[in-house]
Amino acid sequence: NDFNHHLYEKCRMLFKNVNFESVEVITMNTSCCKVLLEMIRDAVKESGKNYKIYERMITPDGEVFE
Predict the structure, then answer these.
(1) 27-66 residue pLDDT tens
(2) 2-17 and 31-47 are packed helices; what angle lies between their axes, rounded to 10 degrees?
(3) CA distance 21 to 23
(4) φ, ψ at 53 (rounded to 5°)
(5) Helices within 1-66 (DSSP H only)
(6) What's the rounded Cα separation, in Å, for the pair 47 and 62?
């Protein structure tokens, strides 16, 4: 949808134009959050940078998975 595309483009440009040491993505363990994680992975890849992506998942109860 348009919102996801807009968010993807903003992330891609941010990753391209700002030098980060790494990117950390924290999502819930739900299918809708998996889309966000894939979007961030793709935006980093398309930015031309090779940032390390750290992924953390949390449950609705707040339990953290590394």
Answers:
(1) 888 877 888 889 999 999 999 999 999 999 888 888 887 6
(2) 40
(3) 7
(4) -105, 120
(5) 2-17, 31-47
(6) 32
